[in-house]
Write a structure and sequence with these properties.
The protein contains 15 helices and 9 strands. The protein has helices at 63-75, 90-97, 120-132, 144-176, 191-202, 210-213, 222-228, 235-265, 270-277, 285-295, 305-311, 337-350, 355-368, 370-391, 414-423, and strands at 7-9, 12-14, 28-34, 38-46, 52-60, 80-84, 102-106, 320-321, 324-325. The strands form 3 sheets. Strands 5-4-3-6-7 form a 5-stranded mixed β-sheet.
Length: 429
C-alpha cells in the first residue's frame, strides 16, 4: 500500500511503501507468558528496515527471578511490556515491573495463539508480535492503593457470604429440632430470639419464661412463641448450634477489623468519597469507598462515561449480523461492580427522595420490565459518579432529567389532571 503517509484500517495500521505490512507501534517491546512457577519473556526489537530480532529468556516467579526479569528488560531498554492475565499469577509480575515499565495486561482471548503452534516460547513471541503492532486491548488496572482497597472489599464480601451461609445453617439446625422461632420473629439472631434459644439450651428440661425474655414490642407474639418452641433439641444439635453461632460472631469481628482497615486506607481519597456520597444511594462512607475501589479515582483513563459503563457490563453486548440484532443482553463484565450497583439501584427506586431516577425506572418498567429498567438505573448512577469525579462537582439532579414523580400505576384526581394538562400547554375549560 503506497502513499506518503501510513494509513490505518480499524486497528490495522500499515507502513509506507510496504504492501499489507502492519505498522510498528512499539519497536522495542516484550511479550511475557506467565505460569505458576516460571515466566517466559521474549523481547522484540524492530529496526528501521522493519526487521525484528528476538531475545528469549526464562525466569523463575520467585522474587529474585522477577527482579532479574526487570534488570534484563532495563538492559535492552525495553519498557513496554504485554502479558496475559493468567489467574492470580500475573500479580507478582505486575507488582515488580509496575514502577519501571508500562504494562499492558491483556485478556487471554485477545492473545490466543494459533492452534497447533502453541508452546511457551511461541506464546511469548506471539504476544510480543501482537503487541508491537498495538493489536492487544489492555485491561484496566488501577493504582496500587486502589487495588488494595478492592482486595479488602472483595474479601469483606466473602465474609458476608460466609455469614449468610452460617445463618442459614443455624436456621436449618433449629428446623431440625422443630424450633419454629423463625416463623414468629423476623430475625433469629435478634436479642429476643437469642435470649429464648439460650434459655432453652441452658435449661433444656424447663420451659423458658417468654414474657421476661422478649422485648416489649413483641408482647403480642408471646403465645405464638410458646407454641413455636415446643420442640426437642438433642445435645448434639445444641452443640452444633453453639459452634455455628460462635463462628458467625467471629466472622462479624473479622468484618469489623476489615472495615477499620478499609477506612484507614481510604483516608487518602476523602475528597473523592465526599463527591460520590452526593450521588443517590452512596450516602454511607463504605458504599462510596467500595465503588471507588472498583473504578478508581481517575476517570480520564476511561475517556468517556460510555466506556466506563461498557467496562462495568452495563451495555448490550454486540451480537449483530447482516443488519439484524440477535440479542440485547448486557455484557458479562463487572462481576463485582454490577451486583453492587443493582443492590444500590433497587434501594434508590423504592425511595421518593430521588424522583429523577424513580421516574425513569417507572417509565422503563412499564415498557421493558423490571430487570432492564434496573440496569438502566445502574447505568445512570455510574454515569453520575463518572461526572462528579471527572468534573469535581457534586451531584446535580437537574442534569439527570425530570424532577417530578408520578406513579403510572396510580390514578390522578381531577385537580391533579387539570394541573397536569395546564403544565403541558392544554387549555382546560
Amino acid at each position: 500500500m503506497k502513499g506518503k503517509k501510513s494509513q490505518g484500517i480499524g486497528r490495522l495500521k500499515f507502513d509506507e511503501g510496504s504492501p499489507l505490512m502492519l505498522k510498528i507501534i512499539y519497536p522495542n517491546c516484550c511479550g511475557i507468558d506467565v505460569h505458576k512457577t516460571f515466566v517466559v519473556a521474549v523481547i522484540a526489537i524492530t529496526d528501521k528496515q522493519g526487521f525484528t530480532s528476538y531475545h528469549r529468556k526464562r525466569f523463575s516467579t520467585f522474587t529474585n527471578g522477577l527482579v532479574q526479569l526487570r534488570d534484563w528488560l532495563e538492559y535492552y531498554s525495553c519498557f513496554d511490556v504485554c502479558m496475559e492475565s493468567t489467574g492470580k499469577y500475573w500479580i507478582p509480575v505486575f507488582n515488580i515491573l509496575e514502577k519501571s515499565c508500562k504494562i499492558c495486561l491483556a485478556h487471554p482471548k485477545y492473545v490466543k495463539a494459533i492452534r497447533g503452534k502453541k508452546t511457551d516460547k511461541k506464546d511469548a513471541q506471539w504476544i510480543a508480535d501482537l503487541f508491537k503492532h498495538d493489536l492487544v486491548a489492555s485491561s484496566f488496572i488501577p493504582p496500587l492503593k486502589i487495588r488494595q482497597l478492592r482486595d479488602l472489599f472483595r474479601y469483606r464480601m466473602k465474609l458476608t457470604q460466609l455469614q449468610v451461609s452460617e445463618k442459614n445453617r443455624y436456621q436449618n439446625c433449629l428446623t431440625w429440632s422443630n424450633l419454629q422461632i423463625a416463623s414468629v420473629v423476623s430475625d433469629v439472631f435478634g436479642k429476643s430470639a437469642q435470649a429464648i434459644i439460650q434459655s432453652i439450651f441452658d435449661n433444656p428440661e424447663d420451659k423458658p419464661n417468654i414474657e421476661q425474655l422478649v422485648h416489649k414490642r413483641m408482647k403480642d407474639k408471646v403465645q405464638d412463641l410458646k407454641i413455636a418452641i415446643e420442640g426437642e433439641v438433642t445435645p448434639e444439635q445444641a452443640e452444633k448450634i453453639r459452634i455455628i453461632k460462635e463462628h458467625y460472631d467471629a466472622l462479624a469481628v473479622c468484618k469489623e477489623d476489615l472495615e477499620t482497615m478499609i477506612r484507614k486506607l481510604g483516608q487518602e481519597y476523602q475528597e473523592q468519597v465526599k463527591l460520590i456520597q452526593t450521588v443517590p444511594g452512596f450516602k454511607e462512607e463504605l458504599s462510596a469507598l467500595r465503588i471507588l475501589s472498583e473504578i478508581g479515582a481517575d476517570m480520564t483513563i476511561f475517556g468517556t462515561a460510555g466506556k466506563l459503563c461498557s467496562w462495568g457490563g452495563l451495555v448490550p453486548a454486540n451480537n449483530e449480523s447482516a443488519g439484524k440484532k440477535f440479542s440485547t443482553r448486557i455484557s458479562k463484565g463487572g462481576h463485582y461492580l454490577k451486583p453492587f450497583l443493582v443492590q444500590i439501584a433497587n434501594a434508590v427506586v423504592k425511595s421518593e427522595k430521588h424522583p429523577e431516577l424513580r421516574n425513569k425506572y417507572l417509565k422503563l418498567k412499564k415498557r421493558r420490565g423490571h430487570r432492564k429498567a434496573i440496569i438502566a438505573i445502574c447505568r445512570r448512577l455510574l454515569v453520575a459518579i463518572y461526572h462528579v469525579l471527572l468534573k469535581q462537582e457534586s451531584y446535580n439532579p437537574r442534569l439527570q432529567g425530570l424532577t417530578e414523580i408520578r406513579n403510572p400505576d396510580k390514578t390522578m384526581s381531577v385537580q391533579d389532571a387539570v394541573r397536569f394538562a395546564q403544565q403541558h400547554g392544554f387549555n382546560v375549560l
